[in-house]
Amino acid sequence: MWNEFVSYIDKNKGRDQRICLVAWNGESCDMKRIYMLTRAPGSTLTMPKGVKYFTDPLHVIHEYKSCKLHPNTSKLERLSLPSLWEYIKKKRLEGPQNNLVDTTAQTDIVVHL
After folding, report:
1. In angstroms, what is the C-alpha Rg of the chain?
2. Exposed (0-12), middle (13-18) or buried (19+): which is 61, by Cβ within 10 Å?
3. Which of 17, 111, 113, 1 shows the shortest CA–CA distance to 55?
4. Mind listing the pLDDT tens digit of every residue in the chain (113 residues)?
């Protein structure tokens, strides 16, 4: 699976483009695990060329009070992916916990004003 990920990045990024990985609540688990796997002694896995940044939208929303999705402004009680997506799209998120649905929801949230 890792080779497919690296191949996808290599095929789809421009020569001089830099990539930012986005993972909802990923700072606490996903990115730490990926970092450990690509930096472990003797590991044959390496991060694809061009991947230079990481962001966790949940962390940004929670930490920056100027963000329009911050609970102080949005009045949302929960900062779950479905709750935030439903808040900005004004409809129910069908199929959360499905990778494609979650990826689409994260994209919508990241590009939201």
Report:
1. 16
2. buried
3. 111
4. 889 989 999 999 988 899 988 888 887 767 888 888 888 888 889 888 888 888 888 888 888 888 888 999 889 888 888 888 899 899 888 876 777 788 888 888 888 87
CB crowding 16-42: b at 16 or more within 10 Å, else e: eeebebbbbbbeeeebeebeeeeeeee
Q: Which of 89, 57, 87 is nearest to 75 (CA)?
A: 87
Angle at 16 between CA 12 and CA 17, to 5 degrees: 55
Q: What is the pTM of this model?
A: 0.73
